[in-house]
Amino acid sequence: MRILITNDDGINAPGLEVLAEIAAEIAGPDGEVWTVAPAFEQSGVGHCISYAHPTMLAQLGPRRFAAEGSPADCVLAALFDVMVDTPPDLVLSGVNRGNNAGENAMYSGTIGGAMEAALQGLPAIALSQYLGPRTAGLDDPFDCARRLGAKTVRQLLQHGDWTAGDDFRLFYNVNFPPVAASEARGLRVAPQGRRGGERFGMRPFVAPNGRRYLWISGGAQDAEATPGSDVAANLDGFITVTPMRPDLTCHASLQGLAQALDEG
């Protein structure tokens, strides 16, 4: 198997090293792992592409490239340049330092990379490691993802539905709980949730030179969330799998809205 890996934390991020280990185990001794990742951190860019300016690409080693762009740019760079003659069988994005559960999924560059792969017709999985007080004291905060990542990917490759019966290929969002691997309680398929309380906001600061700046601020990652959701299951110690697709249509509203507009 030929696997492409990318992330949004950057080419030198420790989570990408974890993902390379996972990918190597999945690819096997006869497989290949290719890396095309952002040259610099791209957290929070979502599914952004560098439409208005070019992307510089540098080869750092065998099958290892850094792109000055977003995770979605990296996937495009791989498919249309780096791996154009040898396309990947699978795209893995991560392992993100921090969770991409709940509303975080809407901002995530990690998920953006997997989404671009799905739009290009490839199976893709985004992987993220939830962090918290129980991971802060670990020698390896990625312990859960490192030790259970390959098993989780194998399960999805074996049992995942990659088509959903329509024009949009599914991809999967995996979040490892904020515990050691030995404390993980198993795997749950869960919908994307939403935390209560403060979420992303913006706060003003004054720099030493007197200039005024605005900084993005985030809410508590352990805030109570939708029961049965990815966030709730993660905080309860479970690995979560959420099937996603690049389709923002609210299908439940289509018929009612069409009828109301026709009658109006």
Automatic annotation (TrEMBL):
The keyword Amino-acid biosynthesis does not apply. Keywords: Cytoplasm, Hydrolase, Metal-binding, Nucleotide-binding. InterPro entries: SurE, SurE-like_Pase/nucleotidase, SurE-like_sf. It comes from the Bacteria. It catalyses: a ribonucleoside 5'-phosphate + H2O = a ribonucleoside + phosphate. One of its GO terms (molecular function) is exopolyphosphatase activity. The keyword Hydrolase applies. A divalent metal cation binds at residues 8-9, 43, 96. Pfam families: SurE. Its cofactor is a divalent metal cation. GO terms for cellular component: cytoplasm. Binds 1 divalent metal cation per subunit. It is found in: Cytoplasm. Belongs to the SurE nucleotidase family. Nucleotidase that shows phosphatase activity on nucleoside 5'-monophosphates. This is 5'-nucleotidase SurE. It comes from Paracoccus zhejiangensis. The gene is surE.
